[in-house]
Amino acid sequence: MRGGAVNRVLLAIAGLLLLALGGSVLAVGLGAPPPHWWLHTGPHDVLLSSAERTRWRDADWWWPTVIAALALLVLLALWWLTSVLRRRRLTEVLVDTGDGEGALLRGKALESVLAEDAARGQGVSHIETLLTGRRTTPAVRAWLRLEPDVDPGTALADFTAQALTHARESAGLASLPAEVRLRAVKHRAERVA
């Protein structure tokens, strides 16, 4: 969940910077007076002068450095794109049926059954589940919101012994590791008369 927020913040910052820079270049290009700190003097000014473009032409290190920097930038952009597009949610789980073929169980179905089973636990006000991992070795991430008077250790033990065990046994899995995050529901202070 934290990675999605970081991605949104980085995309928003990059988008705002590009929008501000592109909008200001467009405004100056269309004839708006440039601010005093602007790099260029008006709409007919070039972005790079001939001297700026040819200054490093004779240096042996210039073009390899430019190509390496651009290649690194492309690799970083591709890495970020693949990390954003990679599916974090497991779509199906392979269940061993004993005949050598196996059956596919939808990941969303297992998530919802696990959440419904855990929500029946005492003191659990809300639960979110996410199935991760691989088809043959799934794992669970769960976020439990507990009532204020519930012992977190008891709630975790109930979740592990009941909902998680039922899900593991019903899917025929040897193990179902889980990462569980607990949070208490905020409540107003009680008035004493």
CATH superfamily of the largest domain, called what?
Cation efflux protein, cytoplasmic domain
Low-confidence stretches: none
The general outline is: elongated
Structural class: alpha+beta
CATH domain class of the largest domain? Alpha Beta
Main pleated sheet = 3 strands, mixed
**What is the name of the CATH architecture of the largest domain?**
2-Layer Sandwich
Nearest-integer average pLDDT? 83
Query: In percent terms, what proportion of residues is strand?
Result: 15-25%
Rg (CA only): 28 Å
Provide the fold topology:
Elements: H1 2-29, H2 50-54, H3 62-85, E1 92-95, E2 103-106, H4 107-119, E3 124-133, E4 138-146, H5 152-170, E5 178-184
Helix pairs in contact: 4-5
Describe the structure.
The chain is an alpha+beta fold and 193 residues long. The protein has three domains: 1-47, no CATH class; 57-86; 92-184, 2-Layer Sandwich (Alpha-Beta Plaits). 46% of the residues lie in helices and 18% in strands. It is built from five helices and five strands, in the order αααββαββαβ. The chain has helices spanning 2-29, 50-54, 62-85, 107-119, 152-170, and strands at 92-95, 103-106, 124-133, 138-146, 178-184. Strands 3-4-5 form a three-stranded mixed beta sheet, with helices on one face. Helix 4 (107-119) runs antiparallel to helix 5 (152-170). The longest helix is centred in the first third of the chain and has 28 residues, at 2-29. It is elongated and about 75 Å long. It starts with a helix and ends in a 9-residue tail after the last strand.
